[in-house]
Amino acid sequence: MMNTLRHLSRRTPTTTPLTRRFATESTGGGGAMTLNFNLPQETLYASAPVKSVVVPGAMGEYEVTADHVPIVAELKAGMLTINFEGGESEKYFVAGGFSLTHEGSATDIVCPEAVKLDDLDSAIVQKNYEAAKAAVASAEAGSMESAEATIELEVNRAMGNALGLSLA
Amino acid sequence: MSTPTTFWRLAGVSYVQYVTKASSTVRAALKEPAKSKALAQETFSYNRATWTNGEMEKKNLVDSLAAVGK
């Protein structure tokens, strides 16, 4: 009896809700996407129409364009690039945060800190990288100090890569 | 979900502590004038008071990480 009733609740292509997933074909694109880019201390972009955003996800870098499938990603320290319709682009170095892309081509990016590459001092990055490397070597494995030194090491390495430094 | 997979979680550091530390590292590498403007974001200040039996025992101003918990 259960087998005969099961067909009543079966999800068919006409009854399945229209939620896009990674395997779903895109409807075509050509629309605009809007960007909300917020820091705790400042709103950088509010509903700004952009062409695409290159997001430094912790699981890998990806580019969001109009009609991108909804995705939530944790960010790693790295470069975020905003490409505008006219061809200009703007780059920020972000310390971390999250990027949420919604249905309807709106993307929210929230970061605790985002700076321009021009504002970063290569000499300080080099110095702090060396200091962090020494701190990791001297700290007890698995301790809080070791974790903090590793965070500094990785973020300084990311800044060095963004600035074009060759850090050992 | 119960087994930590990140080095910071394994060392007992929470996500908020991790991302705050990463932000501080970025701010430390800035040039002036952006640096002073950004470091202002890191400053904090609060009073911490201990109470026993409805009476306040001591009150301390906490304005740096060194003074936290005292």
Shape verdict of chain A:
flat
Mean pLDDT level of chain B: 90
**Helix and strand succession of chain A?**
HEEEEEEEEEEHH
Q: Determine Rg of chain B (CA atoms, Å).
A: 17 Å
> How many DSSP-defined strands of chain B?
2
**Largest β-sheet summary of chain A:** 5 strands, mixed
**Assembly context of the chains:** heterodimer
The parts of chain B where pLDDT drops under 50 for at least 5 residues are: none
Q: Number of helical segments of chain A? A: 3
SSE order of chain B, as H and E?
HHHEE
| Separation, N- and C-terminal Cα atoms of chain A | 69 Å
Biggest beta sheet attributes of chain B: 2 strands, antiparallel
The SS-based structural class of chain A is alpha+beta
Which pair of chains forms the biggest interface, and how many residues does each contribute? Answer: A-B, 29 and 23 residues
Helical residue percent band of chain A: 25-40%
How many E strands of chain A?
A: 10
Describe this structure in words.
The complex is a heterodimer of chains A (168) and B (70). The mean pLDDT of chain A is 89. In chain A, a hairpin with a 2-residue loop joins strand 3 and strand 4. Chain A is flat and about 70 Å long. Chain A contains 3 helices and 10 strands, in the order H-E-E-E-E-E-E-E-E-E-E-H-H. Chain A is of the alpha+beta class. Chain A has helices spanning 2-6, 122-138, 144-163; strands at 33-38, 43-50, 52-57, 60-65, 71-75, 78-83, 89-94, 97-101, 106-110, 114-115. Chain B is an alpha+beta fold and 70 residues long. Helices cover 34% and strands 21% of the residues of chain B. Chain B has helices at 7-10, 15-28, 34-39; strands at residues 46-52, 55-62. In chain B, strands 1-2 form a two-stranded antiparallel ribbon. In chain B, a hairpin with a 2-residue loop joins strand 1 and strand 2. The chains are: A alpha+beta (168), B alpha+beta (70). Chain A binds chain B through residues 40-41, 77, 93, 95-97, 112-113, 115-116, 119-121, 124-125, 128, 142-144, 146-148, 150-152, 155-156, 159, and chain B through 7-8, 10-13, 18-23, 25-31, 34-35, 38, 41.
